[in-house]
Amino acid sequence: MERRFQGTTDIELTGTGVAQARRAARLLAAMKPDAIIASDLRRAADTAAELAALTGLEVTGNPGLRETYAGSWQGLTHDEIMERHGEQYAAWKRGEPVRRGGGELETEVADRAAPVVLSHAEKLPDGGTLVVVSHGGTIRTTIGRLLGLESHSWEALGGLTNCCWSVLGEGARGWRLLEHNAGTLPEPVLGDDD
Predict the structure, then answer these.
(1) What is this structure's pTM?
(2) For 107-133, what is each residue's pLDDT tens digit?
């Protein structure tokens, strides 16, 4: 594994990525989604297409769900970023607002992605399910925004493994994170708001 920072670079899924997308689609189809939205970058759009093929739903693509634009970091490996931008990387990991490689701030990513998710969630029937196919950084910042967390805390949510997901639901006091970096279907938990 190269640990290459992709950002908004528009690359295709590898054979492994297609297999991961198909496995995730089989599981997520069992949740009977009502709508699917996705980043318009090929790797996310192709992942969403696997679920659409099983559900018969159309995918609504939206550039607001793209991964963080990371300027000169894009295409570099983790080691190359550390070597060339070590101070900037360390500041980002400390939770400071950093334009990685001259790109977007995490708050700017949330500013463009969270409204897309909310506008589609509002259109769902009661108890409906929206599947959002995006990218790790965008998903983390959007979840942080929806949960009302301070932006310096978003990194605490941790990353997402390829083709794993997070499950959010509406509780009595707003959005709740029910599962994170999941690769199995959610199970009810005692005490959940119903």
Answers:
(1) 0.88
(2) 999 999 999 999 999 999 999 999 999
